[in-house]
Amino acid sequence: MKIYRFERAGRVSYGLLDQDILRIASGSISEGFEAGADTVPIGEVRILAPALPSKIVAVGVNYKAHALERGRGLPSEPLLFLKPPSALIGPGDAIVHPRMSSRVDYEGELALVIRKTASRLKDDDPVEDYILGYTCFNDVTARDLQDKDVQFTRAKSFDTFAAAGPCIAAGIDPGRLAIKTFVNGKLRQSGYTSDLIFPVPVLVRFISRIMTLVPGDIITTGTPSGIGPLAPGDRVDVQIEGIGTLSNHVIMEEGG
Ligand code: MG
Fold this sequence. Notes:
Number of helices: 4
Radius of gyration: 17 Å
Bound molecules: magnesium ion
CATH class of the largest domain: Alpha Beta
């Protein structure tokens, strides 16, 4: 089941995809969605970021090949950082290259959306119950500022640096999905979620022992190898098997 959040005539709704038709849904992230009788062709709506999270929890160096390309050892436990909800954009929105940075990178990632409040999960708690589904994510990063600053906040937090969508795919197994990133149609990253150092259940349990996860929160699981820069005018696509493609374009920050 693919769940879309979209805007039509100034109204924001959720809908469930049926061929190329969205069935307008009642319900919520925590209660679940049920399709009603009202429908709209998907081409006639503006698709939005799939949730409004209280926080976006990101995981660094979670693929071995990416750890190597960044010259880092393998982590012994998940390396976490936060991205602010104010950075969130949806499909088709522009990624704004800040003038403060001279190198802005894409990072295609598998992300998940929390369905049910999760706090201090135990090893035998069924993690799937807490996850609504999965989406594509672009963890846009000002690489020069990440390397310059001691921590990641500035480099990861610029407005538009958290692209998510196009939908929440529910009922899929996140264990072995092909993930690809294209820039201007050229393949730049290609990996499998089976190569995650810390897989989804481990991450959700680990994070829940640090901070309470609430419905709509997004966890993005880390990027495979092949990171690289984006320039104004570029189009970047993150494509994940079973979910779809998240497309955004890059513009330069105004002013100077
Ligand atoms: Mg990342």
